[in-house]
Amino acid sequence: MTDTPVPAADEPDAVDPFLETGRLMFAAEWQFVTAAPTTEFLPPMQGVEVALVGRSNVGKSSLVNALTGRTHLARTSVTPGRTQELIFFRAQPEFMLVDMPGYGFAKAPKDKVDAWVRTIRAYLRGRVNLARVFVLIDGRHGIKAVDEEILDLLDKAAVSYAIVLTKSDQVKTTEFAARLKETQEKIRRRPAAYPEIFPTSSETGKGLPELRAAIARLLAERG
C-alpha cells in the first residue's frame, strides 16, 4: 500500500491558496502612475485601490519595495514636498497600490499639516474604489496617540482598514506577543477595523506572503 503524500504545512496550497495568487500578483511589473498633491490630481477611479498609510519613518517605502520585490519603486516619485502627496503604483489595470503621505509631522508648519488632513479626508471619503487602508504601526512602539487620530479618521469615513506591525524583527518574541495583544485590544471595538493584524519585516520578509495573500483575497472578493 502506497502512502498518499501529505502537503507540508508551509506549502502555500496547504495553508492558503491566495498565498500563491498574491505572490504572482506582486511579482508582476510595477510602474509609477502619478503623484497627487491634492484631490484634483487624483487619477481616474479604475479597478480596486489598496492604500498604505503610517507615521513618518514607520517603513512605508521599505514595505512597498519589499512587497513588490523592487529596490527603488517607492522612490521613483521622490520630489520636493513628497510627504504631501498620494503616490500611485500599478501592476495591472484592475489594481492600484497607493502610498499615502506619512503623518505625525514633528516639525511641519501647521498649514502643511492642515493641508495633509484635508487631502486625506477628501481622498478617503470620495474614493469609492478604495477597498482597504493598511495602517502601518511601528511594532517596537505600538499604537500611539497620533495613530489613534488616523484610526478615528478612518472610522468616521467608514473605510475598512487593517493594522500592519512593521519592524517586527526588531522586537523580542515575548515583547512582540504583548505588543500584538495590546494592539488587538485597542482595535477590538473600532467599527472599521479588520480583525486580523499583520506582523511584518521588510528586512527578513516576515509576514509579507500573508500580507500579499490578504490583498489578493480582498481583490477577489471585490471581483
From TrEMBL:
UniProt GO BP: division septum assembly
Domain of life, source organism: Bacteria
Residue span(s) of domain EngB-type G: 46-221
A GO term for molecular function: GTP binding
Keywords, ordered alphabetically: Cell cycle, Cell division, GTP-binding, Magnesium, Metal-binding, Nucleotide-binding, Septation
InterPro entries, A to Z: G_ENGB_dom, GTP-bd, GTP-bd_ribosome_bio_YsxC, P-loop_NTPase, Small_GTP-bd
Keyword Chaperone (UniProt): no
One Gene Ontology term, aspect cellular component: cytosol
Signal peptide start-end: none
Pfam families referenced in this protein's UniProt entry, alphabetically: MMR_HSR1
Co-factor requirement: Mg(2+)
Family assignment from sequence similarity: Belongs to the TRAFAC class TrmE-Era-EngA-EngB-Septin-like GTPase superfamily. EngB GTPase family.
Function summary: Necessary for normal cell division and for the maintenance of normal septation.
Alphabetical list of NCBIfam families matching this protein: GTPase_YsxC, small_GTP
Descriptive protein name: Probable GTP-binding protein EngB
Provenance organism: Azorhizobium oxalatiphilum
Phylogenetic lineage: Bacteria, Pseudomonadati, Pseudomonadota, Alphaproteobacteria, Hyphomicrobiales
